[in-house]
Amino acid sequence: MTKQNVIVSNVKSSGISMEITVAVSNSSLFTSTIQKPPPAPGGLITISRKKLLQKLETGVNSGGGRINAWVDSMRASSPTHIKSSPSLYQNEDETSWTLRHPSALSMFEKITAASNGKQIVVFLDYDGTLSPIVEDPDQAFMSTDMRAAVKDVAKYFPTAIVSGRRRDKVYNFVKLAELYYAGSHGMDIKGPSKFSRNKKGMNALLFQPASEFLPMINEVYKALVEATKSTPGAKVENNKFCISVHFRCVDEKRWTALGEQVRLVLNEYPQLRLTQGRKVLEIRPTIKWDKGKALEFLLESLGYADCDDVLPIYIGDDRTDEDAFKVLRNQGQGFGILVTKVPKETNASYSLHDPSEVMDFLRRLVTWKGPLPRGS
Question: pTM above 0.85?
């Protein structure tokens, strides 16, 4: 039986947190209730095997014959093909869509009013949210101004970056040690290792629910690099617990062939599944773990499980962010904010056009909360 040690930090109430070690073995990843305040430093939260297995229950491999459907869907959702291959939501009147998903900037007062008596917790995707989408994913740098905005937000609100990227890579882009980072679509979560002055005394959290898949992911990564090397522009990225096959720079005529190359590799690995993002195919373990589960895990780690005094705000632009939006909508708690310039189907409550509007929203949160703490 595998054990995973998790150190969680409570930032609730006083702002002074306590270290809790969570042993993931025969015991529970999520206790049914969270004590307030959490156990004293060094306390042990036992974790039930049944609950852990429910969280990590394997699903069905969705590779194989669906690859062409995914490529067709990617073609339809690509901004360069909106007019030629419009979807239901792209045909929809933009005004009607905006009425149902209004700008988070225009609805800012309503959002902050909903936080009365509650702790806001901020979750942010990276690519397309904090940085622009670029042809080379290794060049997706965030601006200095955006970094400053995120840093200021984290001084008031627990803040997490939730990305499909490997955790160390997205950390190297953001370079803010005081944040929580959930890489590999939430399968690699680590808490702050260094804190601002008002959060001293906290310790880091580390949780990796897909550790057993690491050897397989590395093996498949090598196979995909070899299989796709004949496709100009294709880029295979090892995100530790998942793999991304980027085809933003691939000629559209080669998309189907690339998809077939990926499918042939995955045929040998039924424990992995294939999903899609913005001009990227994502290969992930078939455990039921995604950005929505990561959001729930982080809220619980912070001491906000089954609480009415928390308001999660999740901002993202990708299909994978819909898992988090759906969690918030189903719970009737918090708000999902979709970053998009075109109408599209979403579980988000609000919208923002692009990273510049995301930065404006974050700055307004800081201004609304009040002057920054001394010494910031």
Answer: no
